[in-house]
Structure formats: structure tokens, C-alpha cells
Amino acid sequence: MVPLALLPRPRSLALSGLLLLSACGADRSRPEGAASLSQVGGEPEVVEVDLEPAVQPPRRPSVEPVEAPGEGSDFRTATSAAGRYTVRWRPVGGEVPNNRHFELDVWLYRGTEELEPLSGARLYVSGWMPDHGHGLVVSPKASEQEPGHYLVRGMLLHMGGFWQVFFDVIDANGISERAAFELELP
Fold first, then answer.
1. pTM value?
2. Which of 112, 114, 176, 182 would be a feasible disulfide site paired with 170, CB 3.0-4.6 Å?
3. 19 phi and psi, to 5 degrees?
């Protein structure tokens, strides 16, 4: 932290901006009716400014997907953050394509051990590239095909690289949790 100046304590956000501009040597002309530093009043105090950038570069979180049970299963499986739901998914057609639309075959279950199909849930799928700081350029839509079985249309991972894919599940009671997967797209 670096002391900026001894300034009066501002009484509003607008005055905070005025004080900052004034302290930084900005143009001292102001619109008619704008407060000056002498009009602000208050006790002087040291104002400190953190010179670290406000936005830090994204970091890859440690998310370890749990593989689907059974030999030769092509579903990927993970449990939501607090363990309320289990999400199993696979791309329709067998692979996640680069820069081509595709669909996901998704099964949602309540619980983690004795899996009960989760019917009537809202499912939102999104993606994020932490190394690039952006997400999907489309908004996929999910529809329930049968109890616990959902089809997600409109998926598009528009470039190769490291992706995080998020499944936000909201049950009929409005309780929501997120399951996360990682994949590297060539």
C-alpha cells in the first residue's frame, strides 16, 4: 500500500472521484455547482491505494473428474460441488469437435451413491477458457428427454485449448449446484 495524500474524508462516491482526480493532478476546472476540495470538509486522513492490478490473471482450478463406473464407459462423471447431484455426460457422436456445433447426452442423478434420476431439473451448460479469459460464444439449451435424461443442443467449443465445462443443475425446489469438468481440445 502506498500513501496517496492527506485528503479530507469524502462524503459520497462522486466526491471520492473528485478527490482522486484532484490528487492526481487532473484538470481543476469543474462543472458549475460541483464541489471543490475546500467544500468537502471533514478530518484529514491518509488515503492508501493498493497498486496491485484489480483483476488477476485466471488460474486453472484443480478439478479432478471422476470417471464413470464400468468397463468401456464413454460417459464422464462428476459430483456437484456439495455432493447433491451426479452428472454423467458424453458428446453425441462420440467426440467433442473443435469449432463445430455438437450435442451432449446428459444424465442427472440425485445423490452420489444410490443414484436416483433427477427429473424436472433445469440444466445450464457453459464453458470457460481460463488461459484466454473467455467463455462460449453460444448459449446451449437443455431439454429433458425422459426422467433424468437430458439432451443439450447448441454446444460449440470454438477453439482448441484448455476448457472448463460447467453443468449448473437447479432442481424443482430451486436448489442449485455446479459440476465441473476439464478437457483439452486439440
1. 0.62
2. 176
3. -65, -45
